[in-house]
Design a protein that fits this description.
The structure holds two protein chains of two kinds. Chain A contains ten helices and ten strands. In chain A, helix 3 packs parallel to helix 9. Chain A is an alpha+beta fold. Chain A has one domain. By secondary structure, chain B is mainly alpha-helical. Chain B has one domain. Chain B has eleven helices and three strands. The radius of gyration of chain B is 20 Å and the shape is globular. The N terminus and C terminus of chain B are likely disordered. Classes of the chains: A alpha+beta, B mainly alpha. Chains A and B meet through helix 3, helix 4, strand 4 and strand 10 of A and helix 9 and strand 3 of B. Strand 4 of chain A pairs antiparallel with strand 3 of chain B.
Chain lengths: ~525, ~230
């Protein structure tokens, strides 16, 4: 997962930002739009040990979670555990199980409400800070975590409820490395949003890393970016960032009377500053289709990278080859002939929805994607299909069975495998700061659609690998001091999105222009 | 153990074969990239461990670097398969002697005039260093070819030794030549942003196992959201 990456300084549409500045100033510096869910500032985490994946006791997991909820504790895992009684062939296989188990617990915890289990309230992560609420266009300090208001609410979205989908930002609809947009079978764009948890946000805010001047000053003091880490021994959660992908939900099909929803559905606000009236901030329903999590931990200084997908997203290439596709799929049409459209292609440009004149649910879609999951299957990667074992186990859990959450599959988890490499603080000084990611490549078909691994591998630094890509992430200092150069940003591209407090510095970055 | 310094390598003072072969690897077409070989029963765990230890002695790089605990690339097995395919009997002889405690020099001395051990070892060294497989026989032929060129022509296409194949893209990017040079292959680097303006990490960190940090590192700051001084 190249994930969180390439959001772009490079990537904000000029027209969009001009319109944003003209029509959507901050409301008196104190936006009152979408209220974030209130939640306790819990720094805690919960360790749920693993004997081995053949003997997972869901009852024990459930009671541990219930205890944590009663105590008001956060029950996101602090770090990945390894099997205490491992069964497996290779070291990689044994270790991988621990990470995939961690991923499932993390997915459940993040998608549960603060004081409840899946499906009983707003997921914890939806209360995290969204990227545009942290890296503000004028480089100003974002509101404190405890402030229920968002720092940045465009005027057309004020007094409306829902997650704001910032279509003026190219990274909302264009995938990492500007590889292209993804279209569902209704001809609608897939949308991508980035969030960070309190620990990550707090580090950015307290160290003034939310603007370019702050980053420069931070660097001048010989600091280096080092986000808080999850630690089982100390019971600390550490920094978590999330990238989620969404598709537009259709009334009568995906939600509404007599419809059993298959997706986690939320209210969304499709913000398009180029549009007029209600269309500038259109109320929509969004269904969750992809979910990346990056979590920095004590034992994995390169972070642990988890990815989940809705299982109606796409078939695998193997399904297609064997004619065993079982749609419907959001991003693949089984009836379409391969000669009609090769798989995993993007449309010709322009990709900007405004330039294309795109409207939600267009009568004549200008493109629908034909996507398959490529790359080796988890069976090929790990010999035993332990990922499928875990998916089945959790899907069949009585607490999940019959809910929308049984439709989400873990793809797998990427982690730094080098020991003691992955434990070493400040990995930038190592010969290989990535500490040998395993598996070498990992992609979510909705978030790194066009850089998925090939069946027999991939191309280093071109095929999607969360750790290898994020190893190249840096800060974004100003040009005030010609000696200032970007510095390593601890595996996150979020800091690159910072704007300057100096309008001149922002001239080349449309999204940063301000009055 | 072979000791190769960064300076020596960069200045081209390493083995002529390696230098020439390295050049060949760089100009090799994609068609040279090998398909993954099928498993072979000779590659038992013990055989592979012995081969890794032999490789460590031949290359001067710690066996834990060559065969990490979690090994996504499996280069040890890949190179072992090729060495075994090239000359199974000789490889077994070398491995037996090596596991009996003999040094590389002693093995070569015992093999005497039969140079197949020497060139098989050379192929193994080149495979680790360059990520390409050179047939021992080709190396031998080239070694005894009269040198009709002078040093200014040593990178000429005519004098490069062609590899049989590039083992894999992973073998190329993980080739030891980059490690001992404290550098990286063209177009692929995991070194941190801005590495070019600093000295590289020490050579020991490239070719020896990393040392573990103190078991309980002191908290860098009382406030986990604060910056951490270097």
């Amino acid at each position: 997962m190249i994930a969180f990456a390439q959001i772009g300084s490079k990537s904000f549409g000029a027209l969009g930002i001009v319109m944003l500045i003209c029509s959507a100033p901050l409301i008196g510096g104190r936006a009152t739009g979408h209220e974030l869910p209130q939640h306790a500032p819990a720094d805690t985490c919960t360790d749920i040990p693993l004997k081995n994946i053949s003997e997972i006791d869901l009852g024990t997991i459930g009671s541990t979670i219930d205890d944590a909820i009663k105590q008001g504790k956060n029950w996101i895992p602090c770090d990945a555990n390894q099997e205490s009684d491992p069964r497996g062939d290779t070291p990689a296989q044994k270790l991988q199980r621990g990470f995939d188990y961690y991923s499932w617990l993390t997915f459940i915890a993040l998608n549960s409400p603060r004081a409840g289990f899946l499906g009983t309230g707003t997921p914890v992560w939806e209360g995290y800070k969204q990227l545009p609420d942290v890296m503000l266009p004028d480089g100003s300090r974002p509101y404190d975590w405890s402030d229920p208001n968002q720092s940045f609410v465009p005027a057309p979205c004020a007094n409306k409820k829902g997650m704001i989908i910032h279509m003026e930002m190219e990274e909302t609809y264009n995938e990492p490395f500007k590889t292209g947009p993804l279209f569902d079978q209704n001809g609608n764009y897939a949308f991508f949003v980035i969030f960070m948890n309190r620990q990550m946000f707090g580090y950015i805010r307290e160290n003034d890393l939310y603007n370019r001047e702050g980053q420069e000053a931070f660097q001048a003091k010989q600091n280096e970016v080092d986000f808080p880490e999850g630690n089982i021994t100390e019971g600390t959660l550490g920094a978590i960032m999330i990238k989620a992908s969404w598709k537009l939900m259709k009334e009568g099909v995906d939600f509404g009377a007599n419809v059993t929803p298959k997706y986690h559905i939320i209210d969304g606000l499709l913000y398009r500053p180029s549009q007029k009236g209600e269309n500038a901030c259109r109320q929509v329903k969004l269904g969750l289709i992809g979910f990346h999590v990056g979590h920095k931990t004590f034992s994995r200084q390169q972070w642990i990278w988890t990815t989940f997908e809705h299982h109606e997203n796409v078939p695998t290439q193997e399904d297609v080859d064997k004619h065993t596709t079982a749609g419907p799929y959001s991003f693949y049409d089984p009836k379409r002939e391969p000669s009609d459209r090769p798989v995993n292609q993007v449309p010709e440009g322009p990709w900007d929805p405004d330039e294309r004149g795109w409207v939600p649910f267009p009568k004549k879609p200008f493109f629908t994607s034909q996507i398959v999951r490529s790359g080796p299957s988890s069976t090929e990667l790990f010999k035993d299909d332990d990922v499928a074992v875990l998916n089945t186990l959790f899907h069949d859990w009585s607490r999940i069975k019959g809910t929308v959450w049984e439709n989400y599959d873990l793809i797998t988890t990427q982690w730094p495998s080098g020991f003691p490499c992955s434990f070493k603080k400040h990995p930038g000084t190592l010969p290989d700061p990535t500490c040998t990611p395993f598996p070498t490549f990992l992609a979510n078909s909705t978030l790194e659609t066009f850089s998925q691994p090939l069946h027999d591998g991939g191309v280093p630094l071109a095929t999607s690998s969360c750790i290898s890509c994020h190893n190249n992430a840096t800060t974004n200092p100003t040009h005030h001091d010609p000696r200032s150069i970007a510095m390593r940003s601890d595996f996150t591209y979020i800091l690159e999105k910072a704007c300057s407090t100096d309008p001149k510095e922002n001239e080349l970055r449309e999204v940063c222009k301000h009055d | 153990m072979t000791e190769i310094s960064r300076r020596a390598l960069i200045s081209g003072a390493t083995a002529t074969a390696a230098t020439a072969a390295f050049g060949a690897a760089l100009i090799s077409p994609t068609s040279l990239i090998a398909k993954r070989l099928p498993d072979d029963s000779v590659s038992s765990d013990q055989n592979l461990t012995n081969f890794a230890n032999l490789s460590a002695a031949l290359t001067g790089v710690d066996s834990s670097i060559l065969t990490p605990n979690v090994d996504p690339f499996g280069l040890n097995a890949e190179i072992h398969r090729r060495a075994n395919a090239a000359n199974a009997d000789k490889l077994q002889t070398i491995l037996s002697k090596f596991t009996d405690g003999k040094t590389i020099e002693q093995i070569l001395a015992e093999e005497g005039r039969d140079e197949s051990a020497k060139f098989l070892m050379r192929s193994i060294i080149l495979a680790w260093y360059l990520g390409a497989w050179y047939e021992p026989g080709v190396l031998k032929t080239n070694a005894y070819k009269p040198r009709t060129y002078n040093s200014t022509r040593r990178y000429s296409k005519e004098v490069l030794i062609p590899p049989k194949e590039i083992i894999s893209p992973d073998a190329y990017t993980n080739a030891l030549v980059w490690r001992v040079a404290q550098a990286h292959p063209m177009g692929y680097s995991n070194l941190q942003f801005g590495y070019w303006e600093k000295d590289p990490p020490p050579i020991e960190e490239f070719i020896r196992p990393l040392k573990q940090d103190d078991p309980k590192p002191a908290p860098a700051t009382t406030d986990p959201t604060k910056g951490v001084p270097k």
